[in-house]
Protein 1
Amino acid sequence: AAGGRALRWASGRTPARELRASPRAGTAMPSWVIDRYGSNEVLRFTRDMMFPIIHFPNEVIIKVHAASLNPIDLSMRSGYGATALNMKRDPLKLKTGETEFPLTLGRDVSGVVMECGLGVSYFKPGDEVWAAIPPWKQGTLSEFVVASGNEVSFKPKCLSHTEAAALPYVGLTAWSALNQVGGLNQSNCSGKRILILGASGGVGTFAVQLMKAWDAHVTAVCSHDASTLVEKLGADDVIDYKSGNLEKQLKTLPLFDFILDNVGGSTEKWALDLLKKWSGATYVTLVTPFLINMDKLGVADGMLQTGVTVGSKTLKHLLKGVHYRWAFFMPSGPCLDEIAELVDSGKIQPVIDEVFSFSEVPKAFLKLEGGHARGKTVINVLSRQ
């Protein structure tokens, strides 16, 4: 699917239809927004959010059927990463006096294409699609959302919109960590020992399934009440981090070829000792100080501090015979194409903790804020009335 996408984009063909905004452009739509950063009380429902407009030829407008929440939505609601995200939104500072508000949260979308820009030939109105919208763009807790064509993929045929909305952001985050940063793929995973720390959350449950689809041996760390779920997803060994000293438990096992860390904190102080030395073994963490550094120190100093930190840690561990890496979510329609194939072949399934109606968005945030999620928190947007 990704190859076909590339060929069609490269062909230079354009649809006969003229580039234009949606017929409803300039009108309002229902949306959940924030006007300032803070806790849950900053969430506000409005029916007057500006309807999205196609500004670039490669964009599409999607009617949102379902969305879902991720920990980044909680963080963004509180202002985490605002400095870096605002720089990405307006790198040349052309919009003087304007702010990012009102800001719509939500990164996942499953829905139907309503309008296509002039340069989009891979999709057409009526196509059922899914996507993960980058955090510097307006989000998906809204009736419609704009996405770049290269961020969008055809929804897996075997999933409903509610089910599909649970996968894009966590799937692409795990894919980034395991495949694009970690170098793992279907042809090199067989027999490799993989350790996943924080295996019962959205990224963890996806990572367990992806590694099993690629024939790896998976050791998953989670709490006891999530162990049954993680075992059903295919994990070979499940370790309860509450049942004793986790480091000691893991050191009784054979060494690992790869570690995915969704937990962070003090974990990386000892986790890299669990890797096979001088064998190409890799530790990848999704918990990094990049956005925090920029919030605290500003753009220039924050980037400098981040570079120094990752550089020093990489060199330190390389000298000990293991690779140390950071990974981030990366939007990618072609990667979602590959994920969709795995879903339709039955190798990956969505893991949904709870589904809320559109009117219950604040309640859904509180659910996510409570922690200990077993999969994803999904919002049915289309059935809002």
Note: The longest helix spans residues 299-318.
Protein 2
Amino acid sequence: YPSEFLIQKITEDNQIPVHLHVSVSLQYVAGLKGNALVEFFHGNIAEVENEELRHLMWSSVLFYKTPNVEVMACVLLSTKAIYFLLDDSFIHADEHQSNFWNKENSDCENSSFHLSCCFVLKLNDLQSVNVGLFDQYFRISGHSADHIVTCLTRDSYNTHTFIQQLMAVLSLLARTPSPEPVDKDFYSEFGSKNTGKMENYELIHSSRVKFIYPNEEEIGDLAFLVAEKMDGLTNLQSLNILLYVLAFQVNHVEGSAQNTSSLQPKTLILTSSDLFLFDEDYISYPLPEFAKEPPKRDKYLLVDGRRIRDLDRVLMGYQTYPQALTFVFDDVQNQDLMQNLTLDHFGE
């Protein structure tokens, strides 16, 4: 252990996305290759001597306790747990949640010493995995609010690969059989016969961890919400969501020493007539079982919306993935973005 193929695969995956900045400590981790990476895992992260590192992924993560702070993490999947190696700046990012982290060592001011905190979610504590629309993100849930993490991969391939690896590792777990009779069908039933309401598509793994995928209703709800924001201009039947993608909106920082730009996470939705930007809550929905009250904000909050017919040009950067796109719209004075311009000019 481990095989040459696994070492090569983990080494290839150990690359920080170029558009995201991380601390020196995580840059050190990203510089490790081959056996050095495996030795680093066993020497500094692994909690049990005989656990095996199976998968490595770099991703932005959100915690249920700090839903407004998106932080870069190196996600390590082993045969015992999921480890989130976090940027050390995250400890100070949200003062209201200071008790969420053990800050015993956070007073190290020595510049040559770089601290990272590691959040551990044991596989035995794992209860469900919710996969987001079009595999752009997934939420891992344990038994309490401290054990809910969303990985914003913004990449269906990374999401799919991690879910496959997680299922494979869960298959190795020896769990005690549940006292209630096990369903004959491998897949759980689609919905409650009492309400007739379509539930999300569930797959119950042999380890009794639920993998929950969105169904067609979720797209329907999103289309309805978009139509509502369009002030009812469009017939809901003809409204098609062509694209749903988690992206960043680029805001240039004025007056900075370097020509820097800040990236604001946004959900981009393209229909046949409009382009929308939403602030989306990726961590609170669907509500966890222990939640006593609904989240403080809606799942989707409209930030901006433009008609495709007002689109003047699209500028594309020449850098490699991820691609930067600039949408230039005609500037119409005193024009409400959502105003109805489809009425006959000579009509009533």
Note: Residues 191-198 have pLDDT under 50 and may be disordered.
Protein 3
Amino acid sequence: MRLQSPQFQALFTPGLRSVAELFEKKNYELRIAGGAVRDLLSGMTPQDIDFATTATPAEMKDMFTAAGVRLINNKGEKHGTITARLHEQNFEITTLRIDVITDGRHAEVEFTTDWEKDAERRDLTVNSMFLGLDGMLYDFFNGYEDLKNKKIRFVGKASERIQEDYLRILRYFRFYGRIAEKPDDHEPSTLQAIKENAKGLAGISGERIWVELKKILLGNHVNHLIRLLYELEIAQYIGLPLNGSLEELDRVAKNIQNLCPKPMTVLTSLFKAKDDVTNLDLRLKISKEEKNLGLFLVKHREELTKAAGPEPLRPYQDFIMDSRDTNTNSRILELLKYQGEENLLKELQQWTVPSFPVSGHDLRRMGMSSGKEIGAALQQLRDEWKKSGYHMDKEELLSCLKKL
């Protein structure tokens, strides 16, 4: 087939046209590769575009240098990737490769001009396609059929692809949550291969695992996929608690639908105690803010709830006003998502945190001089202000102080 969609046509910026001309002059083949092809075939505009070519890195460097094109970020060169900058746009172009030696984490590669051999070393059929700049699709492993049928399959034998890089286990689940229509439409042989190779994830860095896990947590079928991580004995190798609360996960997964939670908000549903957050951090090296959000949700998810009566949001507002932490507001928003409080979430998103209108200077002008006395008076006034729902202004509070 030949693709000519508006999304495909929109890729042809002055930069891409210039790159295409250079490759054409030298008779090097250049095609769009991997995820960008998948996105274009799904009618989406790709966020990142990777290119593949028959030219070697040395040939590309000579060609770009002779044309006066700036080359940046030479870190990818040993893997065959050259990054060129034209018309204020970066183009990442990789020579076709074959994996010669793999250890489950890294691969030693050899360059090739065989497009099928390069497609063969990719993880999933939907990620193994190429698209010519004329719109022609090159699909060696029925990736387009799988994409149309919303099937996620490994290229060739699942166990072989997994053993080349064990992170592909999590990439399988990530793309399943992004593309598959039904929650439980896996090939039994694929799940078996994943289970047999799960232990390989123990040797993958926590940072790489966390990148994939976060995407799984924000995709579709999240509770089904996390259950599979337990059933296939993967959880223990990626920092998840051995006895995660799967029933709580089911409940929270319903709560957070359409509320755009942070990955940590979803994941915290598995945790029973703060030690679970600490252990996750030890394995995955999550950020300080992610860790603090997890600890916050574990601590407050049951005790901090909406009030009965006309002001259900007040406990959350009071908590924010009493806190000295600037991140409390965003953590409370995540707590409301966790609890499924959609209406309160909208209300809090529109609420502006008020500033306490009285200062120590105001009290000094009223004749107070002792720091201790001023501190006590300010606390009294803050309590009154809180009782008023943070509505009393400076005048009302100072007149109130005279009565106190």
Note: Residues 371-387 form the longest helix (17 residues).
